[in-house]
Amino acid sequence: MEGYLDRYLADIPDRVWLEYLWSHDRLCHRIEPELREQSAQAAAWIGISASRRIIAGHSAVSIKNLIEAAGCRIEKVQNDPLKQLRPYLFAEFEEPDRITVYEERVSNVQQLLDNLGVFSDNTLISSYNSSLAEQIILAHEFFHFLDYEGNLTDGISRIKITVFGKLKLHVRVSALSEIAAMAFARDLLALNVHPCILDLLLVHNGNFS
């Protein structure tokens, strides 16, 4: 079961994960499918490009050390004080320079990863004295810090949508930053499964068959 699930998840096409990320954006259904796909591909490439720049500039260094070297602080707390309002949030980047990690959720999802054998082929699974779930989550939030510092997604984050009749507006689409951050984390950690699986595992408590 464990090996089968890992292989099955690894074979899910990227477009499925991208649509999953789009589905969390309230503007999703106002954007034409073709434009969604093009924008998502552009966002993913921004994330991958940012990852490649870091890989080219550093030897094997932990995500934690990369974040701290960039001037961003990591704060770990056991529970999210707003957990009733946002029960599936692992961490958040707070401008200008802080990442807050909610350890209870990270620990819970790591246990699910271990039980189901997800990411069993990942070479960094036991690296840097840190759980893989924590590495993925920190990498994701690290991209948001880099995006804030360097305006990486500004060029693609505003999309024209129809709001009423022929009236169109350019609006900022949050899904694109999330897509870029996921692509960044996946490339930086060489993950065989899309990082979105962490969300799904926590939401469904690992009840896959």
Question: Can you describe what's shown?
Answer:
Helix content is 51%, strand content 13%. The protein is globular and about 55 Å long. The strands form two sheets. Strands 1-3-2 form a three-stranded mixed sheet. A two-stranded antiparallel sheet has the order 4-5. By secondary structure, the protein is α+β, with helices and mostly antiparallel strands.
* Global Rg: 17 Å
Spatial arrangement of strands, main beta sheet: 1-3-2
Task: Identify the overall geometry.
Answer: globular
Kindly report the oligomeric state of this protein.
Answer: single chain
- What is the string of SSEs from the N terminus onward? HHHHEEEHHEEHH
Uncertain segments are none
Mean of pLDDT: 89
Q: Calculate the terminal CA-CA distance, rounded to whole Å.
A: 9 Å
Name the beta content range: 5-15%
Task: Produce a short descriptive summary.
With 209 residues, the protein is an alpha+beta fold. It is 51% helix and 13% strand.
Secondary-structure map:
Blueprint: H1 2-10, H2 14-22, H3 33-57, H4 63-69, E1 73-77, E2 91-94, E3 98-102, H5 103-116, H6 132-150, E4 158-164, E5 167-172, H7 174-189, H8 197-204
Parallel strand pairs: 1-3
Antiparallel strand pairs: 2-3, 4-5
Entry keywords:
single chain; 209 residues; alpha+beta; 3-stranded mixed sheet; two-stranded antiparallel ribbon; 8 helices; 13% strand; globular
